[in-house]
Amino acid sequence: MKTVHQLLNELCDCFERKGHLVTSSLLAPLTEKEIEAKCSSWFPTEIPTAIKDLYTWKGGQEHDGWEEEYPFWFRDMSFISLEQAETEYRSMNQFYGVDNTLEHDGVLLKDCFPFAAFNGGWFVIPASKHKWSNSFDEPVICIFQGIDLYYHSIDKMVKTSIECVQYPTWTTEDPDIPEDVEMKIWKKYNPGIFGE
Question: Per-residue pLDDT for the chain (196 aa), expressed as one digit of tens each?
């Protein structure tokens, strides 16, 4: 079984083979202590293991998806730095309510750690109980015009991304694949999310 770091390296290689040159813009990996130190002033609870797995691989990208020439995409969200994660965290909680202790759709937003963002949307990992807790410890949740379960875990998200980027029609200029193909790949790694 591949580790999250191995899967992320594989995704990186997939991007590079398609001419989507992400390697040079990925920030250096961080230690767990560095991650905790950078986040202790703004994230109110223990940092999820999946977040530590991501940022001990690479530190995200310095610029967001609009500014980065080759964003490191997880579907349609780009991998952000911890500095940007703080900004996105505050924006997410402000946008979804003045009282960020409120639970929205069974998810406590103040305990959700954003690791990818684009155009007012976020991929987050919850650090506290949530409505999917009985099935998944650290799922990837999408917050964009609602709060939805997108992937069972970080590794399932990366496996889904690898197969999508490998699809012949995925290019740097047009990083989309046919919707039915994407859905088939998505369900392969994340069964049960779409009510099948």
Answer: 789 999 999 999 999 999 999 999 999 999 999 999 999 999 999 999 999 999 999 999 998 878 888 999 999 999 999 999 999 999 998 887 545 444 556 778 889 999 999 999 999 999 988 778 778 889 999 998 888 899 999 999 999 999 999 999 998 888 889 999 999 999 999 998 876 5
Name the amino acid, one letter, at 187. Answer: K
Q: How far is the C-alpha of 23 from the C-alpha of 15, rounded, in Å?
A: 9
Token reading at 14? 């997939």
The predicted model scores a pTM of: 0.92
Residue 120 tokens, joined: 């007012």
Burial 74-108 (b: 16+ CB within 10 A, else e): bbbbbbbbbebbbebbeebbeebeeebeeeeeebb
| Residue 73: partners with Cβ closer than 8 Å, 6 or more residues away | 15, 65, 79, 161, 165, 175
What token pair was written down for 5? Answer: 């770091």
Place of tokens 């954003």: 114
Dihedral (CA of 35, 38, 40, 43) sign: negative
d(CA 38, CA 71): 23
Cβ-Cβ contacts under 8 Å for 155 (sequence gap 6 or more): 2, 4, 7
86 touches 42 (CB < 8 A): yes
The number of CA neighbours under 13 Å toward the Cβ of 10 is: 16
